[in-house]
Amino acid sequence: MKVFKARKAFLMQKYLAKFIEWEGEVENIRKVVGLDLSYMKGVGVGVAVLLNYPELKPLKYSIAVDEVPIPYVPGLLAFREAPLMFSAYKLLGVDADLIFVDGHGVTHPRGLGIASHVGLVLDKPSIGAAKKRLVGNIVRDLDGREYLVIGGRKAAVIVKPKPRRTVYLSIGHKISIDSVARLAPTFFKGHPLPEPTYVADKISKEVKRRLAESVER
Length: 217
Prior knowledge:
By secondary structure, this protein is an alpha+beta fold.
């Protein structure tokens, strides 16, 4: 087994970040995929769920379960979690119009969070949905909307779906901040996360629970 080298991963992120597209209009959306991952004693449960749009009704999902050999290193989540997300997406067998990923996009110390990593590899428009801020300054626009700004550029829309709950919807790949802001309200259905990642998270935790129960028997 190859030893994971964090320094090489850091350098790779800096290099790949140059290829992230901060612009793009996502039109005629019909198929949205949410990606998430849960852990159980060194085993990862990757989930890809397909929802229609604008109804956001879950249509089907796929699961990829495997050991996670790469250790947790702050800022390198994609190297640990993305492989199982890719496997789950492939098993889903759909060509998504837009992908939501649990995690950051360009709002990352090296500009390549897991949502950007996934979007770049799959060559799909992607949005990151994160619960904590890593980088960037919060600014309020004239219309009252809040953004995370990095290097003078708006990188994420700040959404507060519930009291004391904040979600940072960031550019992942091939989508503009204007598109993220326009689409943001349409992806929340009363839950603390956008529906694609909310459903994926719910499924991953349920699968993890069932796996844990089967191991205990």
